[in-house]
Amino acid sequence: MKRKKVFICEKCGYTSPKWFGRCPECGEWNTAKEMILSRGEVFEASPLLPLSNVTSEKSERMKTGFSELDGALNGGIVPGQVILLAGEPGVGKSTLALEIADSFSRYGNVVYL
């Protein structure tokens, strides 16, 4: 586990990797407090399984309404799945996302962010 030391101003919350006498954000003196941040968590490794012991479950897939996209996604989108739409400006990424959202509205509420 890697640890990182930062200094945080008690008055305004400004953070810096180095100690500071006067906070550059709020101007208060001697408000820097050291804090140790740890990166990641330590997990115990799971035992290895032979591939013959691994099972897969069929997940219900939601059809996007676009047969080519459904084919590329093995039959649709699995609930909770994240998909990255990438391409040059103007090729229709947002339009495609809105059309998919429209198709998914038959399954329930849709939020487009």
Structural class: alpha+beta
Mean pLDDT: 86
Across the major sheet, the strand order is: 2-1-3
Overall number of structural domains: 2
Shape: flat
Short description:
This protein has 113 residues and is of the alpha+beta class.
Overall description:
- With 113 residues, this protein is α+β, with helices and mostly antiparallel strands.
- The protein folds into two domains: 2-39; 60-104, no CATH class.
- It has a three-stranded antiparallel β-sheet, with no helix packed on it.
- It contains two helices and three strands.
- It is flat and about 65 Å long.
- β1 (2-9) and β2 (15-16) form a beta hairpin.
Annotate the secondary structure layout.
Blueprint (H helix, E strand, L loop, with lengths): L1 E8 L5 E2 L15 E8 L27 H6 L20 H12 L9
Antiparallel strand pairs: 1-2, 1-3
Provide keyphrases for this structure:
2 domains; 113 residues; 16% strand; 3 strands; alpha+beta
